[in-house]
């Protein structure tokens, strides 16, 4: 019992109580001795309204006849709308303090305002509940053992800055990564050591006899992931105490993750006119392996923070064919590199501050950025915005690194037009100033300027490197009781990378205006 008590104390120190970003820094961090069962509720209600102006950049159509961004059917320039989200994070703690069960439930998640009108739109007097009005995004259990913390279930997947794996915890995030994972964490030598196994994907399933549970009847196409992690981190409370004491703090971590898949059943995810009944003839040999190495470091001083994350991803697909019975002679390979840097000067209590951020995502010389290529789509022609970066058997490489869409650096180019940072280099100086502060809250203004270039000019519609300059001003009021109101503006001045040489059209500026309200509990 004495050894268990010592581990309780170690767990409280190594896994701090303050909630951090989702991921390995959260697992077990709130495990502590309790005499009674406890329930904890956290979350927020969020609503957003926005106006999008000229996001197709007035540069005409791509070779496939599509604009860079959807345009109004009447030929106008503006699109507008809004959405909602009510998020609840539930934690249940058993008596004794060694067991915790957690869940994340999102209601009306990103549902467009006015999109669920009942009956004739002009005569509707109500909004009905849309499909998937309630989404359970996480559900997992954690138990403290004499050797470490064991966690099992569907849990958030976040690492470092969130450049590669992002749990979607920020107030303006839209998605968030999750993993069906078994993880074991152990504090040792001042670090957290973790080993995790993820069942990342399973193949075709069928109902069992009871009609309730499902059965995976092609286990050879399952995707498996194993990750080894070492971490040294502190909770926000400890960081704040050290900062006020004038001390600097270094936090860091690294992981190696390996993923593999032996076979595949493409008919389960490729678009088809009619559902295809499963048979053994649909199984395709895949031979997929991928390895990711990621490092993260965060240095915090009383009036300065610097945080850096870098990743290297390699992959090999022995058989890239999507057609049963058709085999390709050469494997498909990938080597991707990405990094992100954030700096912030100025203390939270001060009148303002600023910094310089930057990042890089490796590119692929194939046309299009390869941000969200559709499965089995044709290879893009020069001048397209997106598309597959491999064109087997002529081009057997996919080398463009993709940031998580929830890692936001701007409001127009990467967030809306491209959808994520890929095949690009960017610099982002930023500054903020507190306009007033009182006992209820504060009002602050900020400005960021993002300049970006394509890593591979051949990927851009205009076949040029300079992507453009974006200015993003913000005005935000934040109260101490969980209320926040923000007004965001973004103006993107496109570079020659978005011109249309074939039509002799020059890309023109685009704008976004967005208002956000957040009520946190």
Describe this structure in words.
With about 525 residues, the protein is mostly beta strands. The protein folds into 2 domains: about 1-35 and about 95-100 and about 130-270 and about 280-335, no CATH class; about 40-85 and about 350-375 and about 395-520, no CATH class. It has 3 helices and 20 strands. The strands form 2 sheets. It has an 18-stranded antiparallel β-barrel. It has a two-stranded antiparallel ribbon with strand order 8-9. A hairpin with a 6-residue loop joins strand 14 and strand 15 (about 350-360). The two termini are about 35 Å apart.
Question: What is the count of helical runs?
Answer: 3
Q: Which residues form runs of ≥5 with pLDDT under 50?
A: 1-20
The averaged pLDDT comes out at 90
Beta fraction: over 45%
- Backbone structural class: mainly beta
Largest sheet: 18 strands, antiparallel, barrel
Quickly count the domains. 2
Helix content range? under 10%
- What overall form do the CA principal axes indicate? globular
* CA radius of gyration: 25 Å
Q: Kindly report how far apart the N and C termini lie.
A: 37 Å
Order of helices and strands: HEEEEEEEEEEHEEEEEHEEEEE
Instruction: Specify the oligomeric state.
Output: single chain
Counted beta strands: 20
């Amino acid at each position: 019992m004495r050894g268990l008590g010592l581990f309780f104390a170690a767990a409280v120190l190594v896994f701090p109580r303050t909630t951090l970003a989702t991921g390995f820094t959260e697992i077990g961090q709130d495990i502590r001795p309790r005499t009674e069962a406890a329930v904890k509720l956290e979350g927020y209600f969020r609503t957003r309204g926005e106006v999008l102006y000229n996001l197709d950049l007035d540069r005409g159509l791509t070779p496939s006849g599509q604009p860079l961004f959807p345009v109004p059917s009447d030929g106008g320039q503006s699109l507008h709308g809004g959405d909602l989200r009510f998020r609840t994070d539930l934690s249940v703690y058993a008596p004794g303090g060694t067991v915790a069960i957690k869940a994340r439930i999102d209601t009306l998640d990103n549902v467009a305002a006015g999109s669920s009108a009942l009956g004739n739109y002009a005569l509707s007097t109500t909004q009905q509940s849309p499909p998937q009005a309630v989404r359970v995004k996480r559900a997992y259990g954690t138990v403290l053992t004499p050797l470490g913390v064991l966690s099992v279930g569907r849990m958030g997947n976040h690492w470092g800055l969130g450049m590669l794996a992002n749990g979607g915890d920020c107030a303006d995030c839209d998605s968030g990564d999750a993993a069906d994972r078994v993880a074991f964490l152990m504090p040792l030598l001042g670090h957290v050591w973790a080993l995790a196994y993820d069942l990342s994907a399973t193949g075709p399933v069928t109902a069992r006899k009871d009609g309730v549970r499902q059965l995976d009847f092609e286990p050879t196409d399952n995707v498996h992931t194993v990750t080894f992690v070492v971490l040294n981190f502190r909770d926000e409370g400890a960081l704040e105490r050290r900062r006020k004491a004038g001390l600097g703090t270094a936090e860091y971590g690294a992981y190696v993750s390996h993923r593999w898949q032996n076979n595949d059943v493409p008919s389960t995810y490729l678009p088809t006119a009619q559902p295809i009944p499963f048979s053994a003839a649909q199984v395709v040999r895949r031979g997929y392996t991928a390895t990711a190495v990621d490092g993260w470091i965060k240095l915090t001083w009383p009036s300065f923070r610097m945080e850096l994350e870098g990743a290297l991803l390699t992959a090999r697909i022995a058989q890239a064919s999507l057609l049963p019975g058709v085999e390709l002679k050469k494997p498909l390979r990938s080597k991707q590199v990405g990094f992100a840097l954030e700096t912030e000067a100025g203390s939270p209590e001060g009148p303002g501050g600023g910094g310089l951020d930057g990042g890089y995502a490796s590119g692929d010389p194939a046309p299009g950025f390869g941000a969200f290529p559709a499965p089995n789509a044709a290879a893009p022609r020069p001048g397209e915005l997106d598309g597959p970066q491999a064109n087997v058997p002529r081009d057997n490489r996919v080398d463009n690194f993709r940031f998580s869409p929830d890692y936001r650096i701007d409001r127009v180019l990467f967030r809306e037009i491209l959808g994520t940072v890929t095949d690009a280099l960017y610099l982002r100086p930023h500054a903020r100033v507190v306009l007033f502060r009182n006992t209820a809250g504060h009002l602050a203004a900020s400005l960021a300027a993002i300049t970006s270039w394509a890593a591979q000019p051949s990927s851009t519609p205009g076949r040029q490197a300079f992507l453009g300059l974006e200015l993003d001003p913000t005005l935000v009021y934040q109260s101490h009781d969980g209320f926040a109101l923000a007004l965001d503006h973004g103006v993107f001045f496109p570079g020659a990378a978005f011109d249309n040489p074939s039509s002799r059209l020059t890309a023109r500026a685009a704008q976004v205006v967005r208002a956000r309200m957040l009520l946190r509990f």
